[in-house]
Design brief:
This is Protein MSS2, mitochondrial. Keywords: Coiled coil. The chain has about 375 residues and is mostly helical. Among the domains are: about 90 residues, no CATH class; about 80 residues, no CATH class. Helix content is about 70%, strand content about 0%. The chain is built from 19 helices and no strands. Helix 4 packs antiparallel against helix 5. The radius of gyration is 25 Å and the shape is elongated. The N terminus is likely disordered.
């Protein structure tokens, strides 16, 4: 399987910094090992890290210590993911080390690693036909053996290819085998989003809420669980505004941009707190130039009767609409495909804004 993986795309002659400069200090690494219930302590982990890291360009030279088990390597891989998350950066050397840990774990027979590499192979357009066939054979064997992760990864791949119903089926198969783990929390989030956005013939909000509640019950506050909090905030916005605010504040505190507009309008329209709303809208504008938050700022300043600030924001909105008007006349043909949907959405927002607030806009024009 290792020959089929794309994880070893290393450049010959690449000069890597010493491993001590890539990994955190001993105290931090020891704490992370403890958090992941590592069987091996720092002194036994470092020879594994060092041997693999120093042979990343020549993996056939890797010689793992005799005490190394495949589960240890997957634990170390999870530790590296935490290190990258804590640093909030993508370090090429850590990514390469993480990929090789998966390779080595697969060669020692770890089914999670084998599943990950197999799906990596079938998901790549660069995989050779014989390697693609071999990867599918491994996936079939893991499915027959009811290995949980293979169903989770099958669901992820199906969803990425827009086979949403099939993805949900795979995710439910995973949960029949494993329903109370960290990985399960991610699957619950994915299922929650499926029921929220893609279920046919219509969204199933009750199932979405059930799945998202289970996600935050079993998960840690990572990217997946932050999304779960955000969507729970959406689900509770009409029925339980206080609970909605609780979930949205969690996702906002972790920098999820979509949360700022939702929180701002919740404070403005439900809790009648325009000053607090302005704070959330300001974060959205500063962080992502969010037009929805700019509109929220306008509404908040109008509500507090700060008409000069409202007029200033109106000028910004008018300028944005003028630019988008020009693009709309050309049916957004000159907008790159990756940004076209975003431009169209923003244009629709601005058209609605100017149509629905004609009275106050006229009043501001008289100032």
């Amino acid at each position: 399987m290792s020959s089929a993986s794309l994880a070893r795309g290393f450049l010959r002659g690449y000069s890597r910094p010493p491993i001590q400069s890539v990994l955190p200090k001993q105290k931090t690494l020891s704490r992370l090992l403890f958090d992941h219930d590592s069987r091996l302590a720092y002194k036994k982990v470092m020879p594994i890290f060092t041997n693999i890291y120093e042979n990343l360009e020549t993996p056939t030279n890797i010689r793992l210590p005799h005490y190394t088990k495949h589960d240890d390597l997957m634990t170390l891989r999870a530790v590296l993911r935490d290190i990258r998350a804590l640093s909030n950066a993508v370090n090429k050397n850590l990514v390469d080390l993480e990929n090789e840990l998966i390779e080595q774990a697969a060669e020692l027979g770890n089914n999670d690693a084998i599943a990950m590499l197999a799906f990596e192979a079938i998901g790549s357009s660069e995989t050779l036909p014989e390697d693609y066939a071999y990867a599918n054979k491994l996936i079939k064997e893991l499915q027959d053996a009811k290995h949980p992760l293979v169903f989770k990864l099958a669901g992820d791949l199906a969803f990425a290819k827009n086979y949403h119903e099939q993805a949900a089926q795979y995710w439910n198969q995973f949960l029949e085998l494993e329903d109370d783990s960290l990985v399960a929390s991610h699957v619950y989030t994915s299922l929650g989003l499926f029921y929220f956005n893609f279920a046919k013939p219509e969204p199933n909000l009750a199932k979405a809420r059930e799945c998202l509640e289970k996600a935050i019950k079993f998960g840690e506050l990572d990217t997946s669980i932050i999304k779960a909090h955000y969507y729970l905030g959406q689900l509770y916005s009409m029925t339980d505004p206080k609970r909605s605010r609780y979930h949205l504040e969690i996702s906002a505190s972790k920098g999820l941009q979509e949360s700022f507009a939702s929180l701002g309008f919740l404070e403005l329209n439900v809790f009648d707190n325009p000053l607090k709303a302005i704070e959330w809208f300001k974060l959205g504008v500063e962080g992502n130039n969010d037009i929805t938050c700019l509109i929220g700022q306008f509404d908040s300043h109008v509500k507090t009767e700060n008409l000069l600030k409202a007029k200033s924001i109106l000028a910004n909105l008018a300028d944005l609409k003028k630019k988008l008007d020009a693009l709309a006349r050309q049916q957004f043909r000159n907008v790159p495909e990756a940004f076209k949907g975003h431009a169209e959405t923003n244009y629709a927002l601005l058209v609605t804004f100017f149509d629905s607030r004609k009275g106050i806009i006229h009043k501001l024009s008289q100032l």
